[in-house]
């Protein structure tokens, strides 16, 4: 799809489908106006949802037509939303809009979203220029971390003897005691390991943001805003941590992606 | 609007599971369209996204205990005890080091592949859009 085709399509849809209440315009995010559609990225709402660019001044919105006859939020919808934004973020600054944003048509995108907030969006995009978000996820390897905790908490060996070969019903108290000790130990390790990861990536990052753990064996869950030119440095830093934690923590790096964790609205339009 | 960390630290907030990476990133994140668009907003039904609060419960404790129990059995039985386990205890796993490092790079690529929807290397290198003038 070329840019001109995308524009034409939207002009057609303005003329032809503006009054169709069953079709809306899904909005993904704000980008600079000089983006160009080159791929066949498909959008929210199925493979037929072709992604288009709606421009105003120096900024633009990534949108696609959406049929309104079904609820949004399938795994495919969520993946399409993030996939599109992240693909864009690898190339240009992107202000992500929260999942599920639908307006009546492309003209509303210009008149109510882009035009009134042009300068504010443009300034934020300039700040993001050359930067992207990366997410660092570490997950403890259960056997390894339990072995480590056993070594560090000698009282666990004794409790373990109590529950060995015993049914859960008669050893419930000892089991809960074990569980509490392990849970506290994992929390302490998570805090220490998160701090270690934070210390390591901070020198290569513009900003960092802690994320809540999303799994009880999470070791690290961290978002960083990094100059895309420094992605290699970020990977090198993480390689070192991964080596140090080998067999103990499975470390993953996601990105580049849109700056979901670093965009803060300043009461925009709330007044 | 400013570009800065949207959250200051570890807060107690519901987090999600399943499709974990995508949901972790986009759920409750990004600019809220309602703050900008009023007149032409289209309300649309959103499927409930299964979110789970990560707090330790009795179930968690019992699961940990059972894991400790199993760990114990595999050690004392000596049956199928991988050499890996001993190495882990000492924190020196040379072989795994390489895998872990590769894992970092692979998973980034996996994600791109999965989300862009392509399975070919080429598609990873062809983002959906790029600056004008490039082609």
Number of domains as seen in the coordinates of chain A: 2
Proportion of strand residues of chain A = 15-25%
Seen as an oligomer or otherwise, the chain set is heterodimer
- Total beta strands of chain B: 4
- Class by helix and strand content of chain B? mainly alpha
Strand content of chain B: 5-15%
Distance between the termini of chain B: 33 Å
Major beta-sheet overview of chain B = 2 strands, antiparallel
Cα-to-Cα separation, first versus last residue of chain A: 39 Å
How many DSSP-defined strands of chain A? 11
**Biggest sheet architecture of chain A:** 5 strands, antiparallel
SSE ordering of chain B: EEHEHHHHE
Q: Share of helix among residues of chain A?
A: 40-55%
Q: What are the key terms here?
A:
heterodimer, A: 2 domains, 5-stranded antiparallel beta sheet, 4-stranded antiparallel beta sheet, disordered N terminus, B: 135 residues, mainly alpha, two-stranded antiparallel sheet, 5 helices, 7% strand
Brief rundown of the structure:
Chain A: It holds the Pfam family GvpL_GvpF. Chain A has 8 helices and 11 strands.
Q: What does this 3D model show about the protein?
A:
The complex is a heterodimer of chains A (271) and B (135). Chain A has 271 residues and is of the alpha+beta class. Chain A has two domains: 3-129, no CATH class; 132-257. Chain A has helices at residues 3-17, 75-89, 106-114, 118-128, 142-152, 155-163, 172-201, 231-244; strands spanning 23-32, 35-37, 51-56, 59-67, 95-96, 102-103, 131-140, 207-210, 218-227, 249-257, 263-264. In chain A, strands 1, 3, 4, 5 and 6 form a five-stranded antiparallel β-sheet that branches. Chain A has a four-stranded antiparallel β-sheet with strand order 8-9-7-10. In chain A, strand 3 (51-56) and strand 4 (59-67) form a beta hairpin. The longest helix of chain A is centred in the C-terminal third of the chain and has 30 residues, at 172-201. Chain A is elongated and about 70 Å long. Chain A starts with a helix and ends in a 7-residue tail after the last strand. Mean pLDDT of chain A is 88; it is low at 1-18. Chain B has 135 residues and is mostly helical. Chain B has a domain at 13-55. In chain B, 46% of the residues lie in helices and 7% in strands. Chain B is built from five helices and four strands. Chain B has helices at 20-26, 58-77, 83-90, 94-116, 121-124, and strands spanning 2-3, 15-16, 51-52, 129-131. In chain B, strands 2-3 form a two-stranded antiparallel sheet. At the A-B interface, strand 1, strand 2, helix 2, strand 5 and strand 6 of A face strand 1, strand 2, helix 1, helix 2 and helix 3 of B. Strand 11 (263-264) of chain A pairs antiparallel with strand 1 (2-3) of chain B.
């Amino acid at each position: 799809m070329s840019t001109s085709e995308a524009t034409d399509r939207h002009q057609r849809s303005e003329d032809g489908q503006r009054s169709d209440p069953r079709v809306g315009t899904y909005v993904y995010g704000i980008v600079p106006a000089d983006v160009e559609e080159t791929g066949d990225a498909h959008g929210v709402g199925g493979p037929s949802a072709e992604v288009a660019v709606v421009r105003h001044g120096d900024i633009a919105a990534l949108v696609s037509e959406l049929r309104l006859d079904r609820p949004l939020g399938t795994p495919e919808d969520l993946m399409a939303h993030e996939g599109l934004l992240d693909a864009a973020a690898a190339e240009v600054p992107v202000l992500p809009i929260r999942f599920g944003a639908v307006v009546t048509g492309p003209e509303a995108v210009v008149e109510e979203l882009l035009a009134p907030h042009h300068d504010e969006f443009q300034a934020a995009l300039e700040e993001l220029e050359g930067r992207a978000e990366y997410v660092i996820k570490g997950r403890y390897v259960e056997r390894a971390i339990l072995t480590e905790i056993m070594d560090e908490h000698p009282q666990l060996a004794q409790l373990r003897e109590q529950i060995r070969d015993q049914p859960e019903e008669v050893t419930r108290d000892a089991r809960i005691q074990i569980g509490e000790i392990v849970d506290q130990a994992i929390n302490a390790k998570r805090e220490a390991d998160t701090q270690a990861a934070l210390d390591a990536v901070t020198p290569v990052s513009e900003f960092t943001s802690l994320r809540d753990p999303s799994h009880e064996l999470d070791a690290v869950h961290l978002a960083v805003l990094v100059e895309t030119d420094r992605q290699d440095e970020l990977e090198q830093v993480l390689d070192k941590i991964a080596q140090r934690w080998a067999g103990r923590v499975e470390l993953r790096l996601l990105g580049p992606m849109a700056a979901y964790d670093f965009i803060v609205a300043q009461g925009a339009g709330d007044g | 609007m400013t570009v800065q960390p949207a959250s200051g630290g570890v807060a107690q907030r519901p987090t999600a599971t399943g499709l974990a990476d995508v949901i972790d990133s986009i759920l409750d994140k990004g600019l809220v369209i309602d703050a900008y668009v009023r007149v032409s907003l289209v309300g649309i039904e959103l499927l409930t996204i299964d979110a789970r609060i990560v707090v330790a419960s009795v179930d968690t404790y019992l699961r940990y205990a059972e894991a400790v129990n199993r760990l114990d059995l595999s050690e004392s039985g000596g049956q199928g005890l991988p050499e890996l386990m001993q190495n882990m205890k000492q924190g020196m796993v040379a072989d795994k080091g390489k895998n872990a490092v590769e894992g970092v790079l692979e998973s980034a690529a996996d994600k791109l592949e999965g989300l862009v929807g392509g399975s070919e290397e080429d598609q990873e290198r062809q983002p959906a859009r790029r600056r004008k003038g490039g082609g």
